[in-house]
């Protein structure tokens, strides 16, 4: 995947580049507002990672606006120290697809990049989702594993659906909070762990193999081991 | 009427009206004195003079001369309608005059009296002066008061009608004055409320007219410009702080993480790195919450409030925390009216409710249930979280909303949760109330009802 990283802070930029390359992506770094504008509007990217505060007081949002005004729909992830809810909402409203606040865990950035680029590739509406012998009927809102029905609460269904849609990817706690519970604040507790373990009890406990995995320090993933 | 009385403008207008009525009464009194009273005095003086001049004639011309003069006076065509004369001989027989019926015995002498008599066969209220002449004859000089009576009642009637109309005009004027005043003030109040809830870009519309309100509005607008400037400055500073603190923290975290990525073993170094990352995350969380409180307290909001369906907020939060409650053998329930919405910020209201629910789960040991409910009252919407745990001692209740105050230091927490809830409630022009649920804690976010603050054009108290 080709990523454009617009970030003026050399250490952070370098850290992002290294991490992306380890994850098998290619990254172009850019620390200058004018250059960033040229590359952002003109280049072909799979994703643009944009810092909001650039040298000379330029706001990344103005670059984002130019990109969008040029009819460019490349997914944009804003990476910023401006962490307040207001700033996040503003970034998203101005055309960003995701907003991650600094400091961040690299796994979180990677997981969000993958979710974003995946989301942009396929947006088809399927009647059912599958992983291994687990089957979700999205119309009847029913779940079966190995032919046995599993009773889920509506929110558990949404949680499982989100995970199955992103099967194989790392999904972080904040991604779940935002997508499943529409919760845009950090509760600062292990609340998502508890939700996941309850879901795991229902879909994995009496079955084999286990599908729902916790990745220590990163988040969760659902995959066939 | 009580509402009207509560209005200062109405009271001022009414006071003004009362003063006007008082001055009107003074003018009326002077007018009354100048017409009715002076006229009555003139009459009395005329009567005394008349009696004197007739007594004079009696002295020079005798009784017969007087009798003749009276007859002449009655026939001369002057004051025909009002003059009253009567001359009686010592035995009480009428010698001359135009009175038919009188009561001579009762009449006091040489004093002016007002009596009902028969004049030319018609009843008449007259002012009379009885005078005994030296030979025992009686002279009566009088004046019919019919005209004067008419003038007096006309004056009274005009005063009554005029006064009534003035009173009505004053009342109507007070109402009109109040309405005009209220309309001007409501524009200012509306803006003030908007600003109070954080929309600092709001300004009072200024009309071209150069009246007091325009000048006041312009001054307030200048003040708001200045406040907005200051707030922008504060926001800029906190953004810079955020940037300058978060960037190095982020860098440290990134370096630790990178080091960990290449050494996923259980050496003391990598364990220390993992612990350091956790500490940094906790630090960031506290930092974020402080910023969140500051943001909510300053009302520095760029997003406008919108109608928030509290059902969604409660459902999201309850379904987020239900699993956590289950692990502690508590049942988390939600009770809601059909559709309850308030004007506000959905994410912040969710955060506030989440804090209350989390507190209940964390601190209400042994409470089998935690009840979350949303209730509508005429003027308020109440979001309530009730548990039946140990509760908070009454003397600690005022302190628990202070920043970093912790009642239970054995349970991990930042000590900022209730401060955030208070800040968010205040930002929505509401309050956080903590009460004893006997046993347990009842935490309530009391918000003004949507529209309850909207100012109707009339009926505003000022």
Tell me what you see in this structure.
The complex is a heterodimer of chains A (225) and B (462). Chain A has 225 residues and is an alpha/beta fold. A 5-stranded parallel sheet of chain A has the order 2-1-3-4-5, with helices on both faces. In chain A, α2 runs parallel beside α3. The longest helix of chain A is centred in the middle third of the chain and has 16 residues. Chain A is elongated, with a radius of gyration of 19 Å. The model of chain A has no long low-confidence stretch (mean pLDDT 85). Chain B has 462 residues and is α+β, with helices and mostly antiparallel strands. In chain B, a hairpin with a 2-residue loop joins β4 and β5. Chain B is rod-shaped, with a radius of gyration of 46 Å.
Q: Which features does this protein show?
A:
heterodimer; A: 225 residues; alpha/beta; five-stranded parallel sheet; four-stranded antiparallel sheet; 8 helices; 40% helix; 21% strand; elongated; B: 462 residues; alpha+beta; six-stranded antiparallel sheet; five-stranded mixed sheet; 55% helix; disordered C terminus
């Amino acid at each position: 995947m080709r990523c454009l990283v617009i970030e003026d802070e050399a250490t952070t930029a370098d850290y992002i580049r290294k991490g992306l390359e380890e994850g098998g992506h290619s990254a172009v770094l850019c620390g200058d507002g004018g250059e960033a504008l040229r590359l952002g509007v003109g280049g072909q990217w799979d994703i643009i990672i944009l810092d909001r505060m650039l040298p000379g007081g330029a706001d990344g949002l103005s670059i984002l606006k130019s990109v969008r005004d040029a009819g460019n729909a490349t997914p944009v992830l804003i990476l910023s120290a401006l962490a307040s809810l207001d700033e996040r909402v503003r970034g998203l409203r101005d055309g960003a697809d995701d907003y991650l606040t600094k400091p961040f865990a690299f796994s979180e950035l990677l997981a969000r990049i993958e979710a974003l680029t995946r989301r942009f590739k396929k947006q088809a509406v399927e009647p059912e989702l599958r992983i291994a012998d687990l089957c979700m009927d999205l119309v009847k809102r029913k779940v079966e594993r190995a032919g046995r029905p599993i009773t889920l609460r509506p929110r558990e269904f949404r949680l499982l659906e989100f995970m199955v849609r992103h099967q194989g990817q790392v999904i972080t706690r904040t991604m779940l909070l935002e997508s499943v519970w529409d919760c845009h604040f950090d509760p600062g507790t292990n609340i998502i762990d508890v939700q996941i373990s309850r879901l795991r009890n229902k879909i994995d406990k009496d079955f084999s193999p286990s599908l729902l995995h916790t990745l220590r320090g990163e988040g969760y993933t659902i995959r066939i081991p | 009427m009580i509402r009207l009385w509560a209005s200062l403008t109405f009271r001022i207008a009414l006071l003004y009206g009362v003063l006007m009525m008082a001055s009107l009464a003074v003018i009326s009194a002077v007018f009354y004195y100048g017409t009715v009273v002076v006229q009555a005095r003139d009459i009395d003086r005329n009567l005394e003079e008349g009696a004197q001049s007739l007594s004079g004639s009696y002295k020079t011309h005798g009784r017969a001369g007087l009798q003749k003069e009276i007859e002449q006076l009655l026939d001369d065509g002057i004051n025909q309608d009002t003059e009253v004369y009567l001359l009686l001989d010592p035995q009480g027989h009428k010698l001359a005059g135009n009175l038919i019926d009188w009561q001579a015995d009762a009449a006091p002498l040489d004093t002016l009296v007002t009596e009902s008599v028969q004049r030319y066969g018609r009843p008449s209220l007259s002012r009379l002066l009885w005078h005994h002449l030296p030979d025992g004859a009686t002279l009566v000089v009088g004046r019919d008061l019919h005209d004067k009576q008419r003038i007096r009642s006309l004056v009274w009637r005009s005063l009554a009608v005029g006064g009534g109309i003035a009173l009505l005009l004053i009342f109507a004027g007070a109402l009109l004055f109040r309405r005009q005043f209220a309309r001007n003030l409501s524009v200012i109040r509306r803006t003030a409320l908007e600003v109070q809830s954080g929309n600092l870009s709001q300004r009072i519309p200024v009309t071209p007219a150069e009246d007091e309100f325009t000048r006041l509005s312009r001054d307030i607008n200048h003040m708001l410009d200045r406040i907005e400037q200051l707030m922008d400055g504060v926001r800029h500073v906190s953004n810079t702080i955020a940037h300058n603190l978060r960037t190095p923290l982020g860098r440290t975290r990134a370096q630790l993480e990178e080091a960990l990525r290449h050494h996923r073993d259980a050496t003391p170094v990598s364990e220390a790195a993992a612990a350091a990352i956790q500490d940094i995350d906790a630090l960031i969380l506290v930092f974020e919450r402080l910023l969140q409180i500051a943001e909510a307290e300053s009302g520095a909001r760029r997003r406008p409030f919108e109608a928030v369906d509290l059902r969604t907020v409660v459902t999201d939060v309850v379904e987020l925390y239900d699993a956590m409650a289950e692990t502690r053998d508590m049942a988390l329930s939600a009770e809601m009216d059909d559709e309850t919405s308030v004007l506000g910020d959905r994410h912040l209201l969710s955060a506030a409710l989440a804090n209350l629910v989390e507190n209940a789960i964390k601190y209400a040991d042994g409470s089998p249930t935690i009840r979350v409910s949303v209730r509508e009252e005429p003027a308020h919407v109440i979001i309530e979280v009730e548990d039946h745990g140990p509760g908070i001692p009454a003397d600690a209740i005022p302190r628990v909303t202070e920043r970093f105050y912790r009642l239970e230091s054995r349970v991990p927490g930042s000590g900022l949760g209730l401060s955030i809830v208070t800040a968010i409630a205040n930002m929505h022009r509401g309050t956080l109330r903590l009460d004893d649920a006997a046993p347990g804690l009842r935490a309530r976010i009391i918000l003004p009802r949507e529209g309850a603050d909207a100012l109707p054009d009339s009926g505003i108290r000022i």
